[in-house]
Amino acid sequence: MDSVFALFRPSRFLPLMLLLLSVACITEDRRLSGLPVEQRTLFLQNFGNSTFEGDLQIELTESLRTYIHMRRGYVLVEDRDAARFILFGDVILYRREGHLFDNELNPTRYDLNMVVRVRLIERQTGLTVTSFEEDARTQYSTQEGLVEDEVTARRRLYSSICRKIYNRISQEYPQQSPSP
């Protein structure tokens, strides 16, 4: 009987509930969605990685691609030459630090920090529309409270930083049409 209740522990469903909640909170970007498609095309360059954490840039690029697609403001294109804008990025910091420790000095709670350098350029002119650094932070525990692993915490970290990046590039969208 205990094994049946173990399957339905709230902590097992927390990551799924958080994912559903974050997806439900994502709304269409009304600022850009009313503009003609050809004026808001974006090529997402694969992010670089200046840290020692492998595959971090791949996961972040895919998370950002998904987030941009869900917001329906910028229109992602596969061909660089078909895009009005090109978005470049580089992960310049990723740090995992232990916070709380047990009696044997093993960490029980971790802090994840990420800093990304981003640059949005207009493809035809090569001019920089905006350039900035964005950061995000989250915590997770492998032993106490709502237990989760680093992979799940990273997804929350990506969600936070993708939202911040998208909001910045959406706010910096040039209102005038490009010259022919």
Automatic annotation (TrEMBL):
Example GO biological process: Gram-negative-bacterium-type cell outer membrane assembly
One cellular-component annotation, GO: outer membrane
Superkingdom of origin: Bacteria
Protein name, UniProt field: LPS-assembly lipoprotein LptE
Organism of derivation: Leptonema illini
